[in-house]
Amino acid sequence: MPISWAGVFPALTTQFHPDQSLDLDATQRHVEVLIDSGATGLVMLGSLGENVTLDPQEKRAVMEMTIRAARGRVPVLSGVAETSTAGAVRYAREMEKLGADGVMVLPAMVYKSDPRETIAHFRAVARATGLPILVYNNPIAYGVDITPKMFEELADEKNLVAIKESSADVRRITDLINEVGDRYAIFTGVDDLALESIMLGAKGWIAGLVNAFPAENQYLWDLAVAGEWEEAKAIYRWYMPLLHLDTHFKFVHYIKLAVQECGLGSETLRAPRLPLVGAEREAVLKIIHDGIRNRPRIPKRETVR
Q1: Catalytic site residue 254?
Q2: What is the CATH number of the domain that holds 259?
Q3: Active-site hit among 59, 91, 142, 164
Q4: Is the pTM of this model over 0.90?
Q5: Sheet containing 185-188, strands listed edge to edge, beginning at the edge strand earlier in sequence
Q6: Catalytic residue flag (residue 142)
Q7: What is the mean pLDDT of residues 33-42?
Q8: Model pLDDT, residue 93
Q9: Of 91, 136, 184, 239, which is the active-site residue?
Q10: DSSP 168-236
Q11: Count of the separate structural domains present in the chain
């Protein structure tokens, strides 16, 4: 289905059984919760979806299930996180054949490419598929920075249509707009910079904590895009300790634990990630439980101004 590049696109967790095998039923239940919350798109198999720990058959199974479960209600994207350009090309083509609505493409994993190599990677994937592409820029996690000048150079690739901006520097949004205007739809990919990013012109939010707090996350978005800044700030201040969980290198551990504590899934991770223990676990649980205890009352979505 055509993608409206705006709104909240949850980056979903992948649910596992206690033995770390794929739990498609639990993942499907979570898909339903997030669609019901008002999500305008779903991003499967991103960093939070533990993409690189799944084998090709498992990735296909997750995407087949999600496309089937979505039933055309919202577009479904798959993360593309391969170690080579050839692998990324193959995977993007497979997702097109499978019926995905788009892909979120990362730089090639492991190798820290220079700008020329990075541009060549994204050009190759773009020219290999007719799917619209969301380019994921996260220099903190992946060591490759796709700068505004590089996005200007890539602007002739028509199916590079959106950017997930996760540099953690909100100045980038203004720099991108100054460099390329409205050529790309800009999404924030950093939860604890969401409100600032919306104010500066982000059209969408690839969200993480939405997995655990879908109603509150959507309400914050709705208030912000309606210009209800004072109410949005109040929700944001409650939400911020939870949103900070998205910016730690153990964000998958933390968000999955929040999902479990909110009754929406399991914290089970796939190795080499291990369950949180000791003082770290208690500290994260305190943040989650404080957030649950103090969560704001959210009106039904149709009553939001």
Answers
A1: no
A2: 3.20.20.70
A3: 164
A4: yes
A5: 7-10, 204-207, 185-188, 160-165, 133-137, 102-105, 76-80, 42-44
A6: no
A7: 97
A8: 98
A9: 136
A10: S-THHHHHHHHHHTTSSEEEE--GGGHHHHHHHT--EEEESGGGT-HHHHHHHHHHHHTT-HHHHHHHH
A11: 1
